[in-house]
Amino acid sequence: MMKETLIDIRSLKKYYPVKGGIFRKHIADVKAVDDIDLQIHKGECLGLVGESGCGKTTLGKTLLNIHKATEGRIYFDQDKNEVEELEKLIAAENPDNLQKINKLRTKMDMTQYSRKAISELRRRMQIVFQDPSHSLDPRMLVKKIVAEPLVCQKLLGAEEIQVRLQQIMETVGLSKQHYNRYPHEFSGGQRQRIAVARALTTHPDLILMDEPTSALDVSVQSQILNLLKDLQKQFNLTYIFVTHHLLVVKFISDRIAVMYLGKIVEIGKTKAVFENAKHPYTKALLSAIPVPDPETEKERIILEGDVPNPIDPPNGCRFHPRCSYAVDICKKDLPLMENVDGDHSVACHRWKEIF
Ligand code: SF4
User: Fold this and answer.
1) 26 beta partners
2) How far apart are CA 56 and CA 160, in angstroms?
3) Cβ of residue 323 lying under 6 Å from some atom of ligand 1
4) Is the Cβ atom of 330 under 6 angstroms away from ligand 1?
5) Helix 158-171 × helix 188-200 angle, to 10°
6) How many angstroms separate the first and last alpha carbons of the chain?
7) H/E element, 219
8) Are the beta carbons of 314 and 304 closer than 8 angstroms?
9) Residue pair 224/216 in contact by the 8 Å Cβ criterion
10) What kind and span of H or E run contains 132?
11) Is the CB of residue 168 less than 8 Å from the CB of residue 197?
């Protein structure tokens, strides 16, 4: 069965300008997200993994238009055929089509939306941050925190808000006695439940989970992960799950995208990537997962050197300075995404011969 696409990203870039000199001129760019194509299906959980600074959080926030994209297109819940038509027009690079392209992009491409259109779309996209003790206002009562998105969006009347509040709080495992308390009166896990409740109040289609369990104790992490899984099923939610914790992503994600220095280097079904990784960087990440059996010996792949500077990424394959399989072509040509099997793809010149 064809899966419906919720978000379709084409050639997305997010650069942060670097200024220098006495006149604070633009001298370079930090290429946090660099030319990414990605489709996220309705009802799936896509895990975004990679080392710190690889661009996974920036990609998530750019998708939600929290950070304005530097270049590229983001189509949110658009007709697939219309998107393809528009992409064909853009690819043709015919100046005669410019007016038509601009008109269509204003209608379909989130990067071209007005403030009003973006704010209307906000209801359908929410975010849960890493640390609930920072993402919840300490001076607000829980009932106000959770109802705030509904009040801001003017979606419901006062009575309906109370009904929705009660439903959502029960859904995440909190009761009426919690309404009139402040965030500091809760444990870390309960605070994250409040943050999840706040994200759910507007009945979104998409939630960006930005390391939602990283700040929690291990015992609480599993409770929150199980809750997120249940909620996803119950409300048919689409998650973008950003994390550096591979076992978490293995548990919760349907697909995984591995990022390195602003690019996706491998993407596929969770099982396929874990059992049959094709990119040397993915292999190295997977080799770092601890095995819960002291008898089992596991070969750990140690990556040499640091992640290169995203202001001046290496030519060719960005991973080549740290890759033990690198050959001349890797230093010159950027590898393109190639299909491995089904929807498992990898960007490596040598994936067929090395694994
Ligand atoms: Fe390594 Fe070359 Fe593959 Fe890059 S393209 S991951 S450098 S083998």
Assistant:
1) 19
2) 37
3) yes
4) yes
5) 130
6) 30
7) helix 218-235
8) no
9) yes
10) helix 132-135
11) yes
Q: Which two tokens stand for residue 232?
A: 């996803």
Positions of the chain with pLDDT under 50: none
Q: The pTM is what?
A: 0.93
Q: Pocket of ligand 1, candidates 258, 322, 323, 328: which has the most ligand atoms within 8 Å of its Cβ, to mutate?
A: 323
- Residue 145: HSE in the Cβ half-sphere, 13 Å Cα cutoff: 28
Q: Which residue has the tokens 């919760």?
A: 252
Nearest partner of 240 among 78, 4, 60, judged by Cα: 60
Q: Any idea what DSSP says for residue 109?
A: B
Cα separation, 264 vs 152, whole angstroms? 35
Cα 139 to Cα 208: distance, rounded to the nearest angstrom: 25
User: Which residue's alpha carbon is nearest to atom 7 within ligand 1?
Assistant: 320
119-168, pLDDT tens digit by residue? 889 999 999 999 888 899 999 999 999 999 999 888 888 999 999 999 99
Cβ(284) – ligand 1 distance below 6 Å: no
Q: Ligand 1: does its nearest atom lie under 6 Å from the Cβ of 260? A: no
Q: Show the 3-state SS of the chain.
A: CCCCEEEEEEEEEEEEEEEECCCCEEEEEEEEEEEEEEEEECCCEEEEECCCCCCHHHHHHHHCCCCCCCEEEEEECCCHHHHHHHHHHHHHCCHHHHHHHHHHHHHHEHHHCCHHHHHHHHHHEEEECCCHHHHCCCCCCHHHHHHHHHHHHCCCCHHHHHHHHHHHHHHCCCCHHHCCCCHHHCCHHHHHHHHHHHHHCCCCCEEEEECCCCCCCHHHHHHHHHHHHHHHHHHCCEEEEECCCHHHHHHHCCEEEEEECCEEEEEEEHHHHHHCCCCHHHHHHHHCCCCCCCCCCCCCCCCCCCCCCCCCCCCCCCCHHHCCCCCHHHHHCCCCCEEEECCEEECCCCHHHHC
Counting ligand 1 atoms within 8 A of each CB, the residue from 260, 266, 301, 317 with the most, and so the one to mutate, is 317
Which pLDDT score, from 0 to 100, does residue 132 have? 86
